[in-house]
C-alpha cells in the first residue's frame, strides 16, 4: 500500500473540507439566535420585525448555497465518503435532539443540565442546546471522514 | 475488486496527481482506487480504461465472491 505525502494529504483535505459551509452554518445559527431573541421584544415595529424574520432566512439560504457549491466540487469518491459519514453522524445528532426533547418534556425548558464552566443550569437555553449537536455532528463527521477516506 | 491501475500508472511514469488530472477526479480518488478502498463507478472505470487504452476487464478483476 502506497502512502501519500503530508503535502498531498493536506491538499486533499483542503479540497474535501471547504471552510465556507462551516462559516455559513455558524453565521446562520448566530443570526437565528440573535433574531429569535430580538423577535421576543414586545415593542418591536412591523418593519423591524420583518427584518429580523428575514435575517435568519437569508443566512440559511447562504448555508444551502455554500453546501451545494461545495458538493458540486467533490468527485464520486468524496461524495461516497460524505454520504457514508453522514449516515453515521446524523443519527447521533438526532438522538441528541430527541434526548433534549424528552428532557424538555419531563422538566420544562431551560433543560436542567449541569452548567459547564460554572454556568448555572438555567442558563442552558435553545442556543446552547442546538450548538452541542452541531459540534457533535462536526466531530463525528471529521473523524469518520478521516477513517473512510484514508486520510492520515 | 482488484485492479492494475497503480502498475499501469507507474509504467507510464505518471504521478497520482497527473492521472487524477487526466480523469478529472481528485488525487484522493486515485489513491483510494489503487489501494482497493474504493470501486469506481462504471463511467469512471470506462474513463480509466480509455486513459490507458485498454478494456475495463484488462484493468479491473472482480473477486470470486463478486462474480457469484
- Low-confidence segments of chain B: none
Report the average pLDDT across residues of chain A: 77
End-to-end distance of chain A, in Å? Answer: 13 Å
Oligomer: heterodimer
Report strand order across the widest sheet of chain B.
Answer: 1-2
State the shape of chain B: globular
Number of helices of chain B: 6
What amount of the residues of chain A lies in strands?
Answer: under 5%
- Please bin the fraction of helical residues of chain A: over 70%
Largest sheet of chain A: none
Cα gyration radius of chain A (Å) = 19 Å
Total number of beta strands of chain A: 0
Question: Which pair has the most extensive contact?
Answer: A-B, 17 and 19 residues
Number of domains of chain A: 2
Order of helices and strands of chain B: EHHHHHEH
- Please identify the structural class of chain A as seen in this structure: mainly alpha
Short characterization:
Chain A is an all-alpha fold. Chain A contains five helices and no strands.
Observed structural traits:
heterodimer; A: 152 residues; mainly alpha; 2 domains; 5 helices; 76% helix; globular; B: 68 residues; 6 helices; 62% helix
Could you explain how this protein is built, in words?
Chain A has helices spanning 6-16, 19-38, 46-73, 76-107, 126-149. Chain A is an all-alpha fold and 152 residues long. Chain A has two domains: 1-74; 75-152, no CATH class. In chain A, helix 2 (19-38) runs antiparallel to helix 3 and helix 4 (76-107) packs antiparallel against helix 5. The mean pLDDT of chain A is 77. Chain B is mainly alpha-helical and 68 residues long. Chain B has helices at residues 5-11, 16-23, 27-34, 42-52, 56-59, 64-67; strands spanning 2-3, 60-61. A two-stranded antiparallel sheet of chain B has the order 1-2. In chain B, helix 2 packs across helix 3 (27-34). The mean pLDDT of chain B is 91. The interface between A and B is medium-sized, with 17 and 19 residues.
Amino acid at each position: 500500500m502506497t502512502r501519500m505525502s503530508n503535502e498531498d494529504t493536506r491538499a486533499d483535505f483542503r479540497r474535501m473540507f471547504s471552510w465556507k459551509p462551516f462559516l455559513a452554518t455558524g453565521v446562520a445559527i448566530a443570526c437565528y439566535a440573535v433574531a429569535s431573541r430580538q423577535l421576543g421584544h414586545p415593542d418591536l415595529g412591523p418593519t423591524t420585525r420583518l427584518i429580523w424574520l428575514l435575517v435568519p432566512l437569508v443566512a440559511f439560504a447562504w448555508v444551502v448555497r455554500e453546501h451545494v457549491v461545495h458538493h458540486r466540487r467533490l468527485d464520486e469518491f468524496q461524495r461516497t465518503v460524505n454520504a457514508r459519514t453522514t449516515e453515521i453522524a446524523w443519527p447521533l445528532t438526532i438522538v441528541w435532539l430527541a434526548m433534549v426533547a424528552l428532557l424538555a418534556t419531563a422538566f420544562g425548558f431551560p433543560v436542567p443540565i449541569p452548567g459547564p464552566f460554572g454556568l448555572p443550569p438555567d442558563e442552558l437555553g435553545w442556543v446552547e442546546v442546538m450548538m452541542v449537536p452541531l459540534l457533535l455532528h462536526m466531530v463525528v463527521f471529521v473523524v469518520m471522514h478521516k477513517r473512510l477516506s484514508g486520510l492520515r | 475488486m482488484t485492479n492494475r491501475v497503480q502498475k499501469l500508472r507507474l509504467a507510464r511514469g505518471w504521478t497520482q496527481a497527473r492521472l487524477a488530472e487526466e480523469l478529472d477526479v481528485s488525487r484522493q480518488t486515485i489513491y483510494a482506487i489503487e489501494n482497493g478502498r474504493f470501486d469506481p463507478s462504471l463511467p469512471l472505470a470506462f474513463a480509466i480504461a480509455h486513459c490507458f487504452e485498454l478494456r475495463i476487464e484488462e484493468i479491473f478483476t472482480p473477486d470470486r465472491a463478486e462474480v457469484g
